Amino acid sequence: MSKITPQSANVERPGRVARQLGPPGTRTPAANTALGIRPVRRGDLNAVIEMDAMVTGIEKRDYWNSLYRRYADAVATGQHFLVATISEKVVGFVIGEVRDWEFGSAPCGWVFAIDVRPDARLSGTATELLQAICQCFRKAGVSKVRTLLSRENTLILSFFRSQGMMIGPFIPLEMDLET
Ligand SMILES: CC(C)(COP(=O)(O)OP(=O)(O)OC[C@H]1O[C@@H](n2cnc3c(N)ncnc32)[C@H](O)[C@@H]1OP(=O)(O)O)[C@@H](O)C(=O)NCCC(=O)NCCS
Hints:
With 179 residues, the protein is an alpha+beta fold. It has a single domain, classed as Gcn5-related N-acetyltransferase (GNAT) (Aminopeptidase). It is built from 4 helices and 7 strands. The chain has a 5-stranded mixed beta sheet with strand order 2-3-4-5-6, with helices on both faces. Strands 1-7 form a two-stranded antiparallel ribbon. The relative contact order is 0.24. The structure holds coenzyme A. Residues 1-2, 4, 55, 113-116, 121-127, 153, 155-156, 158-159, 162 line the site of coenzyme A (COA).
């Protein structure tokens, strides 16, 4: 899982119309017609943990169990953890939530993790996952989505840019704490 720069989605730019993030299930992916998107289930966790370990090289079972407890069945409080499946096999996931008035901004959706198995990439899976979570955000009444990513991660930057996301109005700051 990588970190994500504040950006906003679905912005129209001169000469290019941003992809429309429509409701899940209303768009047929060009190459991935067998793809399904649904809320995560307990039985999906091993596949999610394996996928994250494939991407990051670190298995974080405790972290994922804790995330599952906080995000599964938490739609009412604005948390979303969705998986993409092909023939029942989990091939990708997205996690995000609606956050109210953080950093002084009006409530908006934050996407903080999106991953697709290497053998299932470049078929529109992450696009469908992002569309699905954006629809969850819309249902919660927000009209902006943000994310934060590592500046070295050009792959995830290319993906979010392809979806119409642009540099947002925030600057991340940090410092070391003396111990
Ligand atoms: C980034 C990632 C989620 C994209 O998943 P995906 O299912 O392959 O993405 P899509 O097929 O929906 O691609 C949509 C667009 O993203 C861009 N894109 C995706 N992969 C790309 C690549 N390898 N190089 C350049 N652009 C790419 C393209 O513009 C693509 O549109 P196109 O196929 O019409 O050219 C996936 O590569 C991944 O899991 N990467 C590693 C994990 C990671 O770093 N996650 C971040 C955690 S927050």
